[in-house]
């Protein structure tokens, strides 16, 4: 048995006990069948009405004066004990009611605020009165359903707004995280390049210091060499191989565009791969680096080797090749 159906029937003016009974008899099929049953059995006995108390929310106690009390005040007559209170009567419109619940419902609907006890018995509703009351209650039910549907629609719109707002916030957070990761990757690469530059500088300084030390030692051992002119290299002396500190790479992407960048000759091939991942304008995805002359596809081990050891100094052309998935 749905508590919402009971509450709706009580709001329409029926007692809780009658609402529960009507729903149970009609098989809990909803408010409308229960309401029709209640109207058809409106003459069933209900507890005798009690005078509204001072705590009543709808009718002030000062306005509810019984006819017996009025007669006592006027004539000081004692009311016969044989009289039985059978209903409550509206002193304004004269309508009779069986229970306090009906009195409160009438007072709320009409605004009437003067009621008294009556020995008259409320007559059963006629068919026309039942139909009219059913029409009024049906209209009230329809209005409540309409209000509930409007509220549900507003709640659904609010949930959709919250979902869209949450989705936007998640997308913004994801983009911010990607930007932070990319920034960190670039900073790490810059730091690695700076560390390599400082290491090369320290090596060069050490080499120059060693040369100076050897010259000083040679001069100390053979003072005559100080004034001796330098000996010209003979034809049999092997040519000195030039050392390059940097290399210029042209990187061709899968969409035909080319990236050009300079790297340190001792930088690893993995630094080139990171540069391609950051700056590529073609379709993202796994890729290999290769050369055409001579043709060579670099393996995972090659990415840890320096560029000069791979023959990519002082300049070279690298080709980005989409990595094929295994079977």
UniProtKB/TrEMBL annotation:
Gene3D superfamilies: DNA helicase RuvA subunit, C-terminal domain, Phosphatidylinositol 3-kinase Catalytic Subunit, Chain A, domain 1. Keywords: Coiled coil, Cytoplasm. Residues 242-320 form the UBX domain. SUPFAM superfamilies: UBA-like, Ubiquitin-like. Residues 39-77, 109-172, 215-238 are annotated as: Disordered. Residues 55-70 have a biased composition (Polar residues). Transmembrane segments: none annotated. The keyword S-adenosyl-L-methionine does not apply. Coiled coil: none annotated. Pfam families: UBA_7 (PF22562), UBX (PF00789). It is found in: Cytoplasm. It comes from the Eukaryota. InterPro entries: UBA, UBA-like_sf, UBA_UBXN1, Ubiquitin-like_domsf, UBX_dom, Znf_C2H2_type. SMART domains: UBA, UBX. Residues 1-41 form the UBA domain. Its main location: cytoplasm. This is UBX domain-containing protein 1. It comes from Xylocopa violacea. The lineage of its organism: Eukaryota, Metazoa, Ecdysozoa, Arthropoda, Hexapoda.
